[in-house]
């Protein structure tokens, strides 16, 4: 892997990286989110889909975050929700990153009418409000996890296309590309072996930010009833079902899922911003 790309991956090897508070906060929050997405169901004190106590009970020693209007333990549902929100968003970010990077490489390295057409389509997609377009895609494809991943992938791919293409246009003018041609390498080999590795840094940094936005979008879709179906533990859905009861003083059922969403999005965004700043300073 090239020096320029490994900068994005080696920031944790620098001395005292943990003194960067923004990076440290991002690492901790992202680590907890990934841990809960894998082990949340194992450590949850109650079954998140089964009523376990009196309805609408405020936080107590037995039910740390209280119970909702169905008698479900809010704490158990909050810590098991990352299996949906984080897993779905990470999957969509990785898919859109892979697809967008390859398309960006092709449109940047091989300029022409087709490349211009792809970029105009990308511009049109990015011109639409992303939340409205997500609603349309989910309505057309149906409400299930696979379709949600497809919708998020479709929405975020143009971002990676533009990031990669911009970097490829810069990289292909470098002297190492001319040197690779002079030694008899084919254009395809130059693009994949030399230009692509040197053009990955912006996309690697964008991945973390994209996951955060994906979590926010997933929660938003569920909040309006276009995401996952109840009684699946999902932060946006929990907020939506509990919000009407705020007027009755039942604040805990929507507050704790809202805090979880905010912290998780902040963690992924902070990690991406910190990586961008540290790579830029190297």
Notable characteristics:
single chain, 12 helices, MetI-like fold, mainly alpha, 282 residues
Question: How would you explain this protein's 3D organization?
Answer:
- The chain is mainly alpha-helical.
- It has one domain (19-37, 59-281): Orthogonal Bundle (MetI-like fold), CATH 1.10.3720.
- It starts with a helix and ends with a helix.
- The longest helix is centred in the C-terminal third of the chain and has 30 residues, at 252-281.
- It has twelve helices and no strands.
- Helix 4 runs parallel beside helix 7 (145-171) and helix 10 (201-223) packs parallel to helix 11 (235-242).
- It is elongated.
Helix content: over 70%
CATH topology heading: MetI-like fold
Question: What's the alpha carbon Rg, rounded to whole Å?
Answer: 22 Å
What structural category arises from helix and sheet content?
mainly alpha
Highest CATH level, the class: Mainly Alpha
Instruction: Please count the helical segments.
Output: 12
Sheet bearing the most strands, described?
Answer: none
According to DSSP, the number of beta strands is 0
Domain module count: 1
Average pLDDT rating: 85
Identify the CATH homologous superfamily. MetI-like
Taken in chain order, the helices and strands follow as HHHHHHHHHHHH
């Amino acid at each position: 892997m090239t020096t320029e790309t490994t900068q994005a991956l080696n920031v944790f090897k620098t001395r005292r990286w943990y003194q960067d508070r923004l990076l440290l906060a991002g690492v901790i929050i992202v680590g907890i989110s990934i841990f809960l997405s894998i082990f949340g169901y194992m450590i949850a004190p109650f079954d998140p889909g089964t009523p376990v106590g009196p309805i609408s009970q405020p936080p107590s020693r037995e039910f740390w975050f209280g119970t909702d209007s169905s008698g479900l333990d809010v704490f158990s549902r909050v810590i098991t929700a990352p299996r949906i929100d984080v897993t779905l968003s990470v999957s969509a970010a990785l898919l859109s990153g892979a697809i967008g990077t390859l398309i960006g490489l092709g449109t940047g390295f091989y300029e022409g009418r087709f490349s211009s057409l792809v970029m105009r389509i990308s511009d049109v997609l990015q011109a639409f409000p992303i939340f409205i377009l997500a609603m349309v895609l989910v309505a057309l494809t149906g409400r299930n996890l696979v379709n949600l991943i497809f919708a998020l992938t479709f929405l975020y791919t143009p971002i990676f296309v533009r990031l990669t293409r911009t970097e490829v246009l810069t990289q292909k003018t470098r002297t190492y590309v001319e040197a690779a041609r002079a030694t008899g390498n084919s254009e395809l080999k130059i693009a994949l072996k030399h230009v692509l590795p040197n053009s990955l840094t912006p996309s690697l940094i964008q991945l973390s930010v994209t996951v955060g936005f994906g979590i926010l979008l997933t929660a938003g879709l569920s909040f309006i009833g276009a995401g996952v179906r109840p009684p699946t533990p999902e932060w946006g859905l929990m907020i939506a079902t509990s919000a009407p009861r705020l007027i009755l003083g039942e604040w805990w059922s929507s507050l704790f899922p809202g805090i979880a969403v905010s912290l998780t999005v902040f963690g992924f965004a902070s990690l991406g911003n910190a990586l961008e700043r540290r790579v830029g300073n190297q």
